[in-house]
Design brief:
The chain has 343 residues and is α+β, with helices and mostly antiparallel strands. It has eleven helices and 13 strands. Helices cover 27% and strands 31% of the residues.
Length: 343
């Protein structure tokens, strides 16, 4: 059975779609924020497919997929009015709503290979477990939690630049190390991670002993988490020091990926991260990494993460997936995270 004519499948984002995404406020419980660089970010999407719900030249809902061979990542899921309605009546609604029926049909078609060269093995996404709309999506479309990420911050009021840290465009010098450390992770791919430049730290012999790639991000924080989150959002711009880390109207921070430190050395990693903040004239990083990643578990209690971590903590993010019924489950190992997927 064909999808309803209200759904359109495209490979390029339309102005109407960008309007929807630019005006979308993320989060429902506690923290609420809005991406301010969506127009530029969406151009970076790897092999995108846009499934939009359109009426009178207006996009009223969208699911954006990044097609990664047999694994598709769900980058955007913006069906606000439908999700909210579903949340309000989720205990009473025993049947399939129009949205649920149509999207489930599309997901089945994806698994059958009707929208790609071959059948897809799984769809996956990252969701905030405290976000009702995200939970509604996960529960109503057969997604299961397979792992959890830590939102690990690193902050410095006065970051120190290191003369040992430099920029490099040489992906080949890092590729083997990245594949050794992350190559066996679930959903590993390097389409975004291999894009130069990279920040590298060298020792006295010229050996690369730490490196990462960073993405600069710009959000508007509508509301901070917590009971007094609304009040804090309004007064933080007037609080010395704290307003260096959090700028609600124009919150800029860095997101690292393919993070490496020789022998999992936390001292080297702190030197690298601090120098990057200084060089980028920034005060905050948010690093999303699987909580069970061996590298992270070996350093998390040895690092001086900074004031923001003491204030907010390392909030969890659920990794959810829907498997093709004919494919095998993925291993229970950690999930590879690329910065683009989180921002």
């Amino acid at each position: 059975m064909a999808l309803s004519s209200i759904f359109k499948i495209r490979k390029k984002a339309t102005p109407a779609l960008l309007e929807l995404l630019n005006n979308t406020t993320l989060g429902t419980n506690g923290a609420k924020y809005r991406h301010l660089d969506t127009t530029e970010r969406i151009l970076e999407a790897d092999n995108p497919l846009f499934l939009s719900m359109e009426r009178t030249d207006k996009v009223i809902g969208n699911v954006t997929f990044c097609q990664r061979d047999k694994f598709w990542y769900i980058r955007y899921f913006a069906f606000h009015s439908f999700a909210q309605a579903g949340i309000k009546k989720k205990n009473a609604d025993k049947g399939n709503s129009f949205l649920k029926r149509e999207l489930n049909q599309f997901f089945d078609e994806v698994f059958e290979g009707k929208h790609s060269d071959e059948p897809v093995e799984s769809l996956y996404a990252y969701i905030d477990p405290r976000n009702d709309r995200s939970k509604w999506m996960s529960e109503n479309f057969g997604f299961n939690v397979i792992s959890q990420l830590a939102t690990q911050s690193f902050s410095r009021f006065y970051p120190k630049r290191s003369s040992r840290v430099e920029l490099s465009k040489d992906w080949d010098a890092l590729k083997e190390i990245v594949e050794k450390q992350y190559g066996e992770h679930n959903y590993f791919f390097t389409t975004h991670a291999e894009k130069a430049p990279f920040y590298i730290l060298k020792d006295g012999n010229g050996e690369i002993v730490a490196f990462t790639r960073v993405t600069k991000v710009n959000w508007e924080i509508v509301r901070l988490p917590g009971k007094f989150g609304g009040l804090l959002t309004n007064i933080i711009p007037f609080i010395p020091f704290l307003n260096k880390l959090i700028k609600p109207k124009n919150h800029i921070f860095l997101v690292p990926e393919i993070v490496f430190s020789k022998d999992n050395n936390p001292i080297l990693l702190e030197e690298l991260f601090s120098s990057i903040l200084a060089q980028e004239k920034c005060n905050l990083m948010l690093w999303w990494i699987d909580e069970q990643d061996p590298f992270y578990t070996s350093i998390k209690d040895k690092m001086h993460w900074g004031f923001f971590n003491k204030l907010i903590g390392a909030n969890p993010v659920d990794v959810v997936e829907r498997r093709n019924p004919t494919s095998k489950a993925i291993s229970k190992g950690p999930v590879f995270v690329t910065a683009f997927d989180m921002v």
